[in-house]
Amino acid sequence: MDVTDSNNRDAALDFVKGILVIVMVIYHVMNYFSTAGSAGFGYVRFVTGSFIFVSGYIISRFYEKKYRIDRSGTSRRLFARGVKLLIIFTALNVFINLTAIGNPGKAPLGMRQYLGNLSAIYVSGNGRLAAFQILLPISYLLLLSPALLFLDGFKKSMIVTTLLVAFCFSWFHVDSDNLSLGLVGVLGLSAGMAINELQGSFSIKNRLIIVSCLLVCIYLMGYLSRNVIAYSIGVGIVLKLFYDLAKTVNLRKQINQRIILFGQYTLICYIMQIALLQGLFRILSGKRWGLGYETVSVFIVTNIVLLGLCRLVKFLRDRYESADKTYRFIFS
Questions:
Q1: Is the Cβ–Cβ distance between 165 and 109 less than 8 Å?
Q2: What is the pTM of this model?
Q3: Residues 38, 82: one domain?
């Protein structure tokens, strides 16, 4: 989920990704432990598309110029990252189906049924048949990105074509999570290309205005999730507001450094929070509550554990070259 080069990081962008990790924890804690209905989930449903959109945005922002200089080398790097994500997704799902350890709300298919549903999982994208489903559209976006970067001279045509395809998806009610989320990623990549051409970009500098706009946009996102175009535009606006917010705060403050750390290890946070919440769900015998102190307590504990894990990974990478190489081999 992190396609940014470690030696070319944008602290404000890592802050945005860290915020998304926290929202993702809220989403999964609600999913496992709360009795909240669909209305409650509407306020955090933007997080899935946000990860896809920001992945596409990062590809164009960080790799478009590199692609022009070294087309083959950049293509290999992006393609390799896509393959790694695909392998991680497959390995996690094979493990779940072999061990029957997975989301307690989903009955594991078993390897025979898993293999029999490969088309539904890997092509159309059915979240009921696989875990960690968000990794697939990001993987496909990375695999496709060299071809998309090759079309950087046709940015406008690519944006128009993507919007037309997204319109058709909504109009004909095409049910494919992989393809619809992939379109969100392509629109994010197109947005990054467009920003690369701008000499400067508009930003809001008043924190009160930013927060007010964010609250309104997040509220409205609950009504936009069924339309790919509206959802993508909404996600883009929310991410832009979060980025503007990052520019107005002191990123050196301890709490903001912790959020940035989450943003630097989004993939680890994504995998480990699900493993942790599934473990807690079993320990607590599947108890569910309203949106009260119980779910808030689970949310706080999850974030504390994730923060400790991120710090441990960072410490090991800084201390031991072998740990850093292992991390890069798997996740970079």
A1: no
A2: 0.90
A3: no
Same domain, 65 and 180: yes
Do 2 and 129 have their domain in common? no
* Burial grade of 214 (CB within 10 A; 0-12, 13-18, 19 or more): middle
What are the distances in angstroms from CA 131 to CA 32, 124, 136? 14, 14, 10
Q: Note whether 40 and 50 are same-domain residues.
A: no
Residues 6 or more apart from 163 whose CB is under 8 A from it? 187, 229
If asked whether residues 155 and 244 sit together in one domain, one would say yes
pLDDT digit of tens for each residue in the chain (332 aa)? 666 655 567 899 999 999 999 999 999 998 888 877 777 777 888 998 999 999 999 998 889 889 889 999 999 999 999 999 999 999 998 888 887 676 655 655 677 888 888 888 898 877 778 888 899 999 999 999 998 888 776 666 777 777 777 777 667 666 778 888 888 898 899 888 888 777 666 788 899 999 999 999 988 887 776 678 888 889 999 999 999 999 999 999 999 999 999 999 999 999 999 989 888 888 887 777 777 788 889 999 999 999 999 999 999 999 999 999 999 998 88
**Burial track 144-181 (b if 16+ CB lie within 10 A, e otherwise):** bbbebbeebeebeebbeebbebbeebeeeeeebbbbbb
| Nearest to 245, CA basis, from 16, 2, 9 | 16
> Does 56 share its domain with 127?
yes
Residue 153 per-residue DSSP state: G
CB atoms within 10 A of CB 219: 11
What is the domain range of residue 26? 1-13+21-44+251-332
